[in-house]
Amino acid sequence: MDPIINAVLKPKSIAIIGASTKPNKIGFKVVENLKNCGYTGPVYPINPDAEEILGYKCYPNIKDVPYVVDMAVVTVPAQVVPTITREAGEKGVKGLSIITSGFSEVGDHALEEEVVKIAREYGMRIIGPNIIGVLSNSDKMNASFTNFLPLEGKAALVSQSGALLIAMDAATYTRRVGFDKMISIGNQADLDFADLIAYLNEDENTTCITLYIEGIKDGPRFMQEARKCTKPIIALKAGSSAHGAAAAASHTGSLAGSAKVYEAAFEQAGVAQALDLNDMFDTTLALSLQPTMKGDNLLIVTNGGGVGVLATDAAEKYGLPLKFAPEDVQAELRKHMPSFGSAKNPVDITGQAGLEGYYEGVKYAYAHPWVDGVVVLYCETSVTNPQEIAEAIYNALQESGASGKPVAVSLIGGDRCETAMKWLIERDIPTYNAPDLAVKAMASLRKQNEMLKTAHNGLYKPDDVDSEKARQIIAGARAKGRNALTEVEAKHVFKAYGLPVAPTDLAHNEDEAVKLAEQIGYPVVMKIVSPDILHKSDAGAVKVNIKNEQGVRDAWKLILENSLAYKADAEIDGVAIQEMAPWATEVIVGSVNDATFGPTLMFGLGGIFVEVMKDVTFKVAPIDEATALDMQSEIKSSKILQGVRGELPRDQKALAKVLAHYSYMIYDLQDEIAESDANPVIVYEDGQGVSVVDARIILTKK
Ligand code: ACO
Predict the structure, then answer these.
(1) pLDDT digit string (tens) for 99-130?
(2) For ligand 1, is residue 47 a contact (CB within 6 Å)?
(3) Neighbouring C-beta atoms of residue 613, cutoff 10 Å
């Protein structure tokens, strides 16, 4: 654990620079909050005019404090912050928590950079500026201007929004989701999400990390730290923007949007994405209290058929479909229910079920090796007391002799259920007021288990690549002042990264075209090669299925005529002669350089699937072949690849190899490739391979 960051987030002594004697000021509130929450370390208010504040001796300047100061909370106006940062550095303060607003969030980047620069000179770390402060139950520390510590618990919240942190702090009590820490990170001038993930991963009081994110500064570093983290991370990402999409030159560019890339990055890094605030609280409750679910066998115990069906529907919806319990499980469970109950799954112990039914049923089910996780549902009835049922469930789990499996409960009813829910949550059992929420929580525990497995994989790197050759081709195009490769150049770059490109060569005159066509073999495709004509079909500059010499000569004339009609002053390199790949399933592979996460791969089926339905999926590069297979099943039209209506499945393995190699190409050449497309890529029947038919690469601006 980084000792300096630890000193900032878990300080043994705190100064408040800009502490005030006036109760309506933030500089007073912070001192008051530290006092009221029971912080046990020394507190040093700094104010040029005051003698003492709330019983703490005041110092005119941080340098006048005769003791060690770990962290200083800053509540002076923005213009004064550089001066006090230098003074704190000279004093040897380890870090600052800068509450003050008025920096990059209002456009004053220079002031913020100045403060960070000064802090770096002294080896200080900064949290903020523009924050509420830092709260920690385990340290009894409320170094913020929100009034109280959150409900005690095991999660840690890192929030980019100060107002939301204050609201969530209060809501922890009504929602009964406990947090040990709440950290406001504001402008992330120094410490950012990645630093805090790394820190909290080692914090003994944190079991799960919850993030409210508006924007990540360094996407690859965020992913790297999230991948290393062994604790669950939940992220609520606000703001989705198609910024820049309209201006993008390639197909992929217009389909990517930052929200989709964030979604992909979270998934790849093992971060659970919360859909909204409710989901963020509900998921935090489960992931902070329960172990992950190691297998797919979910067993539901219920006293109501209706809620059992709702839970079954939810299980399917959230990707954890129920299976019938094995015969021995059913036989044992039948002993604890009336004859009209059902032991299959959901296990319906019926509305007549009392304490014994719940106790015996849950105890047996939880301990059975077939069961990977249990959801217990209870509908309030006139013959049972919700509190007694809660106790029976709790005792059953405790006395089952089993551990390491997750459980979630739903108590559906009125005030008595609310009280019993609170009781169970206080005992680390995530409990919800609706059956689908308990199932959803279990699905998130299952997903977390699977994500953590793959997130820890190292970065993919194939060995059959020749990046030097690719860089030479790119340098050649740049030397001619171009920022896009011709199709032939792009195909050679693809080839250097091991992609199966349909044989293509450049003809500079009609006779050469005939010669190349004969070498490649008829039928062939002919396409204009011009840096000024990117959309060749629109220009009428593509001819397919040319079967003989006369066809080549006719096509040559027509293509040149159409190209010049499309753009009279177009620079023309020649005409590409390409093998006419037999037609099969058409897919598109492409890339963008995402502003946050860098090179990002796109995949979808071609034609109307991409044009109209926008049925595409993204992954941050590079990805391995297993992830590339997953990527193929993520699109809605994935069944087409698997083989529909009697057609044989497509060669998904070969396609996975193409996607993985392509992803490595855009990762390796990220300083050179801004956007690219392989469109179309033809995917043949299983075992028959894949052929990249067209290629486009747009270079980065240098
Ligand atoms: N050393 C020590 N104390 C100093 C110094 C100094 N160099 N200079 C000034 N002070 C004292 C002042 O004398 C004053 O104390 P006093 O009230 O006893 O006179 C105290 O520091 C505060 O200075 P003020 O000039 O009175 O500033 P004020 O309290 O009005 O505002 C503040 C300061 C709160 C930092 C303000 O500039 C600010 O940024 N407010 C916004 C903070 C915020 O909302 N952050 C979270 C954003 S997230 C969200 O959206 C909720």
Answers:
(1) 999 999 899 999 999 999 999 999 999 999 99
(2) yes
(3) 14
Verify whether ligand 1 is closer than 6 Å to residue 517 (CB atom).
no
Question: In 230-354, which ranges are continuous DSSP H helix?
Answer: 251-255, 258-268, 277-289, 305-317, 327-334
Strands (E) in 430-520, as ranges, are 431-432, 504-507
Q: Name the most confidently modeled range: 201-210, 376-385, 640-649.
A: 201-210
Strand ranges in 489-571 using DSSP code E only, listed in sequence order: 504-507, 524-529, 542-546
51 CB within 6 A, ligand 1: no
Cα–ligand 1 centroid distance for 19 (angstroms): 8
From the CA of 197, how far away is ligand 1's center (Å)? 29
pLDDT, residue 247, reads 36
φ and ψ at residue 668, rounded to 5 degrees: -65, -35
CB 255 within 8 A of CB 148: no
The gap between the terminal CA atoms of the chain, to the nearest Å, is 39
Partners of residue 56 on adjacent β-strands:
53
Shortest-distance atom of ligand 1 to CA 163: 51
Distance 59 CA to ligand 1 centre (A): 16
Per-residue pLDDT tens over the stretch 527-556: 999 888 878 888 999 999 999 999 999 999
Helices 162-175 and 277-289 cross at an angle (nearest 10°) of 60
Q: What DSSP string describes 32-56? A: HHHHHTT--S-EEEE-SS-SEETTE
Q: Which residues face 347 on adjacent strands?
A: 301
Cβ contacts of 177 within 8 Å, gap of 6 or more? 151, 153, 155, 281, 284, 285, 288
Q: How many angstroms separate the alpha carbon of residue 170 from the centre of ligand 1? A: 24
Q: How far apart are CA 18 and CA 27, in angstroms?
A: 6
267 Cα–ligand 1 center, Å: 41
Does residue 26 have its Cβ closer than 6 Å to ligand 1? yes
Q: List helix spans (H) across 1-124.
A: 3-9, 26-36, 81-91, 109-121
Quick check: CB of 46 below 6 Å from ligand 1?
A: yes
Atom of ligand 1 nearest to the CA of 84: 7
Percent helix, strand, coil in the chain, to 5, is: 40, 20, 40
In terms of Cα–Cα distance, which of 27, 11, 26 is closest to 70? 11
pTM for the full predicted model: 0.90
In a mutational test of the pocket of ligand 1, which residue from 16, 24, 25, 62 has the highest number of ligand atoms less than 8 Å from its CB? Answer: 25
Distance CA 394, CA 423 (A): 10
Q: In the numeric block, which tokens belong to residue 386?
A: 């919700």
Closest CA to 315 of 372, 277, 370: 372
**The two structure tokens encoding residue 62:** 């941080």
Instruction: For the chain, give the number of residues.
Output: 702
For ligand 1, atom 17, which residue shows the shortest CA distance?
20
Per-residue buried b or exposed e for 216-229, using 16+ beta carbons within 10 Å of the residue's own CB: bebbbbbbbbbbeb
Q: Taking every pair of C-alpha atoms in the chain, what is the biggest distance, in angstroms?
A: 100
**CA 380 to the chain's CA centroid:** 38
Q: Is 94 exposed, middle or buried (0-12, 13-18, 19+ CB in 10 A)?
A: buried
CA 46 to ligand 1 centroid distance, Å: 12
The mean pLDDT of the chain is 92
31 Cβ inside 6 Å of ligand 1: no
